[in-house]
Write a sequence for this structure.
């Protein structure tokens, strides 16, 4: 089935890239927006950006940038050019649960279909101005995120830069589908790789690394309590061994954890990012700051779950208990000064609507400029990629997006992308020039 999935993916990818030509030097572009936001400070009216062979070679006032005669000039008279946006918690193999529940996606959708969906989701993400994704688990699609990443890198399909984790790692019996609620004699596909014990955990880290994982993702807690409550799933020594194995291979570690206890365990084990963390105490946030552990709050996922399962109606209903919980955690994190980067859990909601996460960051207290930094400069630092992407500066790769209006003043402008460039290749140009 995996072979069929990848063959189908490449078949469609080749069709989508039918006009692609052999690799050659990338064109030189002079980008002429109404203003440029470099990732720091205020936007600069009248600035331009010169791109040559995929890199930013000049940025500044139009009168100070000497563009060659053969540069292709792209005018964006009503738009702000910003660094390409990043979403550090995505699932390209999932689609919204009000379309198909998670169990049904994993159990019923053919792997070929899921791969093709993922290719479409990658396309939609790039069109929205998000030029980088950290994809945190294939949710039953094995190592196929590596294939999607390679297809993008090889120009077979369009999509963002991808940092992938392959299967993710969970404690035995803690993650779906089942085993609770299913017959004992049925062998079900698993949503992640199950392990128990230090040796098995280390082996799983090495297995996923060997299959192409850029990061390692661990689930430090889940709904395993006898009463259905969320409880830690791994012992401290298991977490520590897996984090150490990942770090020893040069890979960073993202940890799913909702409860304060599990977050504290993960931080003490050496985790690099905490995903969700809706119940984190102020004291644990301080510990995260001391250890330089970033937080990805996935605010939009909380809203989406409320819509799907608790009859929440945006703009009409009172926030759900979980939405109130994460808002309170956000306030605690802001008070302490924890690094907060943009990570939405997109896939739970529609790919291409990633703008909803920075909008939530603003709704809960960030300024629009701070939210934009969470999606650019800060996100690049979390990925340890700040010397390559995340800002508009000479020498960095040309990952850029432009939006009608100025999202550093009004975050809703992110709903109106008009131009996208990744690594010096134009992916979207609504102006047509």
């Amino acid at each position: 089935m995996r072979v069929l999935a990848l063959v189908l993916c490449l078949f469609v990818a080749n069709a989508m890239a039918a006009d692609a030509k052999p690799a050659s030097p990338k064109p030189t572009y002079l980008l002429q927006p109404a203003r440029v936001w470099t990732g720091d400070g205020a936007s600069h009216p009248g600035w331009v950006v010169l791109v040559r062979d995929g890199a930013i070679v000049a940025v500044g006032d139009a009168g100070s940038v000497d563009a060659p005669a053969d540069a292709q000039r792209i005018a964006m008279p009503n738009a702000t050019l910003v660094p390409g946006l990043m979403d550090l918690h995505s699932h390209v193999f999932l689609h919204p649960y009000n379309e198909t529940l998670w169990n049904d996606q994993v159990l019923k959708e053919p792997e070929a279909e899921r791969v093709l969906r993922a290719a479409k989701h990658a396309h939609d993400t790039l069109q929205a101005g998000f030029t980088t994704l950290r994809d945190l688990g294939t949710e039953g699609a094995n190592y196929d995120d590596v294939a999607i990443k390679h297809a993008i890198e090889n120009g077979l399909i369009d999509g963002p830069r991808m940092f992938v984790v392959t299967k993710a790692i969970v404690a035995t019996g803690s993650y779906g589908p089942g085993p609770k609620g299913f017959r004992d004699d049925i062998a079900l596909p698993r949503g992640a790789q199950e392990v128990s014990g230090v040796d098995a955990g280390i082996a799983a880290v090495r297995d996923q690394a060997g299959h192409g994982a850029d990061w390692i993702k661990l689930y430090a807690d889940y709904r395993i309590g006898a009463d259905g409550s969320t409880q830690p799933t791994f012992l401290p020594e298991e977490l520590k061994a897996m984090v150490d194995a990942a770090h020893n291979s040069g890979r960073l570690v993202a940890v799913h954890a909702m409860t304060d206890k599990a977050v504290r365990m993960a931080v003490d084990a050496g985790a690099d990012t905490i995903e969700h963390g809706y119940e984190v105490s102020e004291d644990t946030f301080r510990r995260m700051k001391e250890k330089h552990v970033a937080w990805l709050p996935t605010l939009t996922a909380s809203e989406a779950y409320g819509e799907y399962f608790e009859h929440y109606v945006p703009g009409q209903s009172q926030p759900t208990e979980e939405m109130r919980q994460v808002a309170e955690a956000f306030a605690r994190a802001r008070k302490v000064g924890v690094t907060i980067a943009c990570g939405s859990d997109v896939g739970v909601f529609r790919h291409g609507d990633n703008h909803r996460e920075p909008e939530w960051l603003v709704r809960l207290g960030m300024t629009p400029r701070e939210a934009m930094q969470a999606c650019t400069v800060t996100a690049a630092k979390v990925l340890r990629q700040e010397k390559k992407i995340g800002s508009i500066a000479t020498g960095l790769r040309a990952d850029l997006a432009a939006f009608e209006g100025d999202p550093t003043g009004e975050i809703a402008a992110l709903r109106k992308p008009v131009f996208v460039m990744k690594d010096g290749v134009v992916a979207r140009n609504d102006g047509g020039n």
About this structure: The chain has 13 helices and 19 strands. The first strand starts at residue 29 and ends at 36. Confidence is low (pLDDT under 50) at residues 7-21.
